[in-house]
Amino acid sequence: MSESFVPGLRYRSPAHELWALVVESLAGWEQRLNDAAAATGLSPVSAWALVQLDPDTPISQKELAARLHCNPSTVVDPTDRLEHCGLVSRQAKPLDRRVNTLVVTPKGVEVRDLLIERLFEPPESFRDLPAREQARFRNVMLGVVRQPHARGRTRRQGDRRDV
After folding, report:
1. Are residues 56 and 47 in contact, defined by beta-carbon separation less than 8 angstroms?
2. Does residue 153 have a pLDDT over 60?
3. Are 118 and 32 in contact (CB under 8 A)?
4. Pseudo-torsion of CA 24, 26, 31, 35, nearest 10°?
5. How many degrees, rounded to 5, is the angle at CA 59 between CA 55 and CA 60?
6. CA 129 → CA 120, 133, 144, distances in Å?
7. What confidence score (pLDDT) does residue 34 get?
8. 91 DSSP β-pair partners
């Protein structure tokens, strides 16, 4: 980790240093999202909402909010904007017409594909790693993200899993 990222930071453990390096490696993510969104004429929030919609599986705004880890009312404005731009349409759910689902339009699929291409193009530092190191790093990161506590699902003492 560079001294300029967090001046004076002292590592308490190797895991602490590793996490700091991961955080520093993501320093350009916000700018990348802003740039990709601007290139498609969307706000970063609307762009990320579109990326989270699977064109093959329409979902409700409530399901999108759960995917984005936010309150359902938070996704109303971005999805309104996506609909206004012709990137999604709201359609009644066939088995429960009280629920509207978000359906990605053909134009939405094109814009989503462009966003995904720009957002997930690996940085040069990743591309420069030898294939063996990329595979090793990938396997380590898969182990990290698949751990329940890595996604904020830690259980506090007294919590019940079946509630």
Report:
1. no
2. no
3. yes
4. 150
5. 140
6. 16, 6, 20
7. 95
8. 101
